[in-house]
Design brief:
This protein has 368 residues and is α/β, with parallel strands linked by helices. It is built from 15 helices and 13 strands. It comes from Vibrio parahaemolyticus.
């Protein structure tokens, strides 16, 4: 089967990792896979037989698009989408592909006039907050129109039941199918054995780990506050990631006198090594589309405590794991969970993870 995956870029994000995982696994199974990107950024390792095609759209046109977006917001995509679709048709023979998957809202907006019988839109995050709460009424209408356009294609894929519910309740889109993100569980466990960063992991002692972009969504501020109250139980807090909240979070750490206990380690291509050695992993997010890091941490046999945010965590943390979900707004409850936590009593079952294996996810994509 010939598959085309469309994404803005392959920088180090969760949705990008999903695209790469799908491409690699499909290729391993003998399928002909192409990834089409509009921005020339690739930060993941791809199977040598995966074809990457970069948009031929000129830098001059991209600069014009950027200026239009800064002035008109997403309304600009109504015009520039024509340029992107034209370039795509110039770069690739679309009628040769059995299935085309468009990942991300920005790619959806760029290729909104592409929808045809073999094109699927893949949603990695909730759209109601992003679209309905937009103060600009024209942009709101434009965004909702793009969502409706996506339903004209072959179908819609959501990475969680929560996102599917969101689309149905807020936009009346009822033809969405849920396919969980793919995870190569064996690869994750193998990578967890490798210390790529040559870090002296023992120096951190018993540590809490958080992996994610340093930004409002991930809410590391709450985790730092909770750590202050349990710093007699844990030696360190490790934050893996970069982002716009870096300076403010470091100021918060200083205000609590935790400069020697909280470590900002930046981006790493192999967070699994840190997960394997962590005492507990905490996801403090205000919202998610799925929560890839939860599955990855559990695959490394790392206990997890997570906010019960929309969407994903309560679909991943099931059975006995659901006890370790806390109210997203309640820092005190997170503190109590950390205080109560005992690794000897935490149980992770393979049955909790098998539904996220890449074999199952890819099978569902191909049979969709």
């Amino acid at each position: 089967m010939k598959i085309l995956l469309i994404r803005q870029s392959l920088h180090g994000g969760g949705a990008e990792r999903v695209v790469v995982s799908l491409a690699n696994k499909m290729t391993e199974q003998g399928h002909d896979v192409t990834i089409y990107i509009t921005d020339d950024i690739i930060e993941y390792d791809l199977h040598e037989e995966v074809t990457v095609v970069k948009s031929s759209l000129s830098e001059k046109t991209k600069n014009i698009e950027s200026k239009m977006i800064s002035k008109l917001g997403n309304l600009a995509f109504s015009i520039t989408s024509l340029f992107h679709v034209f370039s795509l048709r110039k770069d690739l023979k679309l009628n040769e592909y059995d299935k085309i998957y468009i990942h991300s809202i920005s790619s959806l907006l760029r290729f909104q006039y592409l929808f045809k019988k073999n094109v699927y839109a893949v949603y990695h995050a909730s759209k109601s907050d992003l679209l309905l709460k937009n103060r600009n009424k024209l942009q709101k209408i434009k965004n909702i129109f793009a969502l409706k356009m996506s339903s004209l294609g072959k179908g819609i894929v959501c990475v969680s039941e929560g996102i599917r519910f969101d689309l149905e309740e807020c936009f009346g889109i009822c033809n969405a199918k849920v396919i969980y993100n793919p995870f190569d569980l064996d690869m994750i466990r193998n990578q967890a054995e490798i210390n790529y960063d040559n870090v002296d992991i023992a120096k951190f002692g018993s540590y809490i780990l958080n992996v994610g972009r340093l930004q409002y969504q991930k809410n590391q501020e709450q985790l730092i506050k909770a750590f202050f109250h349990v710093s007699d139980k844990f030696d360190s807090l490790l934050l893996l990631g970069v982002g716009p909240d870096d300076k403010n979070l470091k100021k918060l750490v200083i205000s609590y006198g935790l400069e020697e206990r909280v470590f900002f380690l930046g981006y790493t291509s192999n967070p699994y090594f840190y997960m394997k050695h962590a005492t507990v992993f905490v996801l403090s997010s205000r919202f998610e589309g799925f929560g890839n890091v939860l599955v990855e941490a559990l695959a490394c046999n790392c206990p997890v405590i997570s906010s019960n945010c929309n969407y994903g965590p309560n679909e991943i943390m099931i059975n006995s794991l659901s006890y370790w979900l806390y109210n997203q707004e309640d820092t005190q409850e997170l503190t109590e969970k950390l205080t109560e936590f005992d690794s000897e009593k935490y149980r992770i079952s393979d049955s909790d993870l098998i539904r996220f294996s890449d074999d199952i996810s890819v099978m569902k994509y191909l049979n969709n």
